[in-house]
Amino acid sequence: MPPDRRGDNLFLGAALVICGELMFASMGVGIRFVANELPNEAIVFFRNLLSLFLLAPLLVRSDVGFATRVLHLHLLRGAAGVSAMYCFFYAIANIPLADAMLLKLTAPLFIPLVALFWLRESLTSRIWLAIAIGFGGVLLILRPGLEEMSPVASIAVLGGMFAAVAKVTVRRLSRSEPPLRIVFHFALTATLVSGIPLLWAWQTPSPFALGWLLVIALFATLGQLCLTNGLSLAPAAHMGSFGYFAVIFGAAYGWLLWDEVLTWWTVAGAVLIVYAGVLAANRTADKVEPARSVAPERALET
After folding, report:
1. What digits encode the pLDDT tens for the residues 56-103?
2. What are the domain boundaries of the chain?
């Protein structure tokens, strides 16, 4: 019997997604250290600029090439991704690291809604139930009434919505675009977009901050490469639940470096969000896979 390549791809894809989330949690540590000196706009810009410099030699040495026939999808992914980045970086600097990582990973809850409005896919009652459970968990974490927590956490949830759009677009791009080209186009678009706010928010980084910015860019680039390769090996719906490893990594970093302890509200909310994310991912996968074989190139363009 031939080997089960699909199973191998799922295992490798999951491993790459988990590795990518470790890189992103490590990036969060760097953001925490540099956020005391630089504004959010500068951190986002330098993260993208330095990532672009790190990726350029890889693209030049490869035979991938920069030209693309789906520039509009790259631009969409870039706009959604950099919007999520602004939200995520702001949350990291202002709330416990584990909370920020968890709220960023509300993306699987938004993916079915993206499919509803973009792909015009109908949602089953099971998916609606998963969405309701997931946002119930978000409310536990937001804890309405604690004014110093809720606004920042709400921004993190907004970042999850933007991340959902970016992840669905990455899956679409992976059908015709190699991972390196996807990541490079994102870095270029994000650098250009994030450079605009520096017209009024520029601040020259110190050598200390510049060193951490380079570390942030390195972890971010490695995380993007791992995540993009992982998502190209299996449907994003199947991979979504593995992203919750970022919460474990974020909680460990927060405890070790800043003595942050997860509250019972956060734990309860995390359980609901993880359960809802897995439920939504599984049901979305059941619906999306057959549709892809019917119209693979037009599925995300209608």
Report:
1. 777 677 766 677 777 788 888 888 889 988 998 898 888 888 778 777
2. 5-294
